[in-house]
Amino acid sequence: MFSLTERNLSDDWYPADKTDIANLVIPKLGPNSTLKVLSQIPHDVILYNLPVFLHILLDTWRTCRKPEESSEPIYGSLDLKRQAFAASIKNIKSHLERIFQRLYKYCPVEFIEGFIEVFFMENPIALEYEATSAQIDLVAIEILVATPTISPQHIFSTLLDGIRQRTPGMQMNRRKPILRLGKLTDTSIMRFAEIYCGNIITAEPLAHLWPLIHAFAKDYLSQANAYKNFLPGLLRFLTVVLDTLTKYQGFDDKKTRKDAQDLYQRCVDYCILIAGRSFDQSLWLRRSTTVYDETASLGSGFSGDGSDSMSLSDTIASDISRNVSTSNVSDLEKKASWKSREDIMIIQVNAYLASAVIPNLRLLVADQDRINSLLNNLVYYVIGPAMRTKTG
């Protein structure tokens, strides 16, 4: 933070040896410096407000984006000013990269989770499962993955450990305790992982991460009754991951592919039970005898002609404060349609099965017997009850 404005401050704290700027973390301040109070803030307070600082740095990065070059030639002093401005921008971005690198070095888990918080504060609509890539600003994720020394392996391990830590009853494998627990939920981090896999990471590093993903998903599927609200997000995540891996030539080991297909089949089977309200009938709402409740029960976001049956919650995008210091992702997520209304979540599971899972079963499951088993379950638990209700 200090290094962004170091050339505009007095020389009371600016080092005489200009070559030592790269190693400057917190400058020495003079007794009359207006920044003196900042140097006295306790470490834990700064750490607790890390997302706020990251948001400021991210906005600074946006401001310093390289402006579009004009096609018209520029001569004289104006050209010199443009060159000086470009050099200043480059210098500031270089300092930002150093700050990001140092923050990641000293608090890697808190750094990654802080960026997740910033991402959802800037993109509350991303908490809706039906949000598309065109509605989401990926700058926060792009800056995160561009941080020097960071790797997809560490990002993924941090995400999966963060999910486990926020899931009641799930065993934790984290070796080093985190200093700040972010204001996140297991489902929001799972949603972030889905977006990260679908838009940023490539197939090669994802193939190396598959054993980690497989073990993670297996832990949740082995206790599906306890974590059924987590399974729709897990299905979306696995669909994105396996859609990328099955098209990658490096993911060609037969046993690995078979294990992946078996894992995916289990997850789809559980989500079919959720879609048919048959996972645990004593716990799931059964206000209607059909899978699709009446239009009136879904509110204004549902239209009978299906044209906008899964419309996004407008309140998430417009009415919620995006201030990182006063809002948190957990409260934002409670306002998502799938979180606030169980019947809407079931409709969204049905829609995802129909649009993303079933058309790709040959790619994601491959084995015809497995495909037939999934389709038979879909007919028995979802389509059959719906057809009987309509004909009755």
From TrEMBL:
Alphabetical list of InterPro entries matching this protein: DOP1, DOP1_C
Domain DOP1-like C-terminal: 208-391
Protein name, entry field: DOP1-like C-terminal domain-containing protein
Natural source organism: Phycomyces blakesleeanus
